[in-house]
Amino acid sequence: MPDDAGLHALREAARLSPDNLPLRRHLAEQLLTKGYLAEAETEFRAALVLAPQDPDVITGLAEAFVRQSAYGAALSVLEPLLADPGHAPRAGLLAARALLGEGDVAGAARRYHDAVARDPSLADPGLAERLTPQPQPVTPAPPYAPETPLNRAEDPDDAEAERSGVTFADVAGMEAVKESLRVKLLLPVQQPELFAAFGKRAGGGVLLYGPPGAGKTHLARAAAGELGAAFISVGLADILDMYIGSSERNLRATFEMARRHRPCVLFFDEVDALAARRSDMRQAHTRQLVNQFLAELDGVEEHANEGVLVLAATNAPWYIDAAFRRPGRFDQMVFVPPPDASARAAILRILCRDKPLAEMDYDAVAKVTDGFVGADLKGVVDRAVETKLRQSISAGRPLPLTTNDLLTVAQATRPTAVKEWLGTARNYVLHANDSGAWDELMPWIDGKTGKTGMTGMKGMKGSKGRW
Known about the structure:
Elements: H1 5-16, H2 21-33, H3 37-50, H4 55-67, H5 71-82, H6 89-101, H7 105-118, H8 125-130, H9 149-153, E1 162-163, H10 175-190, H11 192-197, E2 204-209, H12 216-227, E3 230-234, H13 236-239, H14 246-260, E4 264-268, H15 284-298, E5 308-314, E6 332-335, H16 341-352, H17 362-367, H18 374-395, H19 403-411, H20 418-431, E7 445-446, E8 451-452
Parallel strand pairs: 2-5, 2-6, 3-4, 4-5
Antiparallel strand pairs: 1-3, 7-8
């Protein structure tokens, strides 16, 4: 149950008066507004039993489905409304989002333009841009000159910045993480006048950290898609060069590319390799690369990085030079935790949505996958699909994937890296946290037994002390 006094009171009132349709509908809408999607879905379903034809209940349930990436379910529940030519424009907009999630771009475009034509206030520039085909000129580099950020910077019309096809609706769970990114990165671009009134400009940096496979890269792409911004993903091979000075030039060229494509999300994966502690470095040229990175984050001119949103991801935040956490650089560190049970069920639903399925109980699979991250769950689905393919070949027809198929694989699989990662994190939380940098990890560390755990220390969430 959500930890919210107002919602708790509404839920208790609904329990005492289960046939009160306005009350149930209000509770469902409040849950949806605050992002408690699974609970909102449950309440909308209960309201739908009381009023099967209520358009507000139907569209509310459809929105809960869309925001959980259950696009097929959303289209199914909207179908009776959409059959009426005079349906509410909001229903058409939700259908557009669901159709886009299902890969039907043309159908989504028709629904979107019809909805906006009847209600211009529903216009969504980010969604409209995703529905507009983007030309992708192909200019292959000569075989003797591999393409690098330095090469690309010499072309003023480079097309290396991509457009992300995913949004936060495609990211299961992690509501707190998504909200942090909205406030820090997205809202200053979407509502510049409001932020300008407080002297805040669009731009800045966020460092995503957590165990491997938890979805940091997927989250960065979703942030770009949510904003409708250009997305530039930077790997080590794009920056590091064997010749002294070349790595710094490549880094500078990458930032210049992002500034030309603003608003832009510039994403550095495995950033600890580019931003390591200078005190640990033996060679001067490697320290110079860190200095160059810091200079680019600051911007040579006052507004140089306005509209450039810098995201970085790492599995080892404790190895990053402390100077990167100074305000104006990566001044916000966001922990991307292993998914909880409801998030694991949502991830499984997304991974299975394009496959032939029997009636699935994703919650049952989520219960036996404690400690699994998104990458582990994808491995479970992939192995279950391989087994089902072999059975289908023998049967001569496609056989639907079942809950038991997933359970069989999940019970024979061990999670990859969460336990080891939390073991390392524990050392820093207990013995190297004088600055409070790792307070966010405290709820994930079981200080009483000395072992890492997924459920330990829940009562200490948000505490600032040591124990």
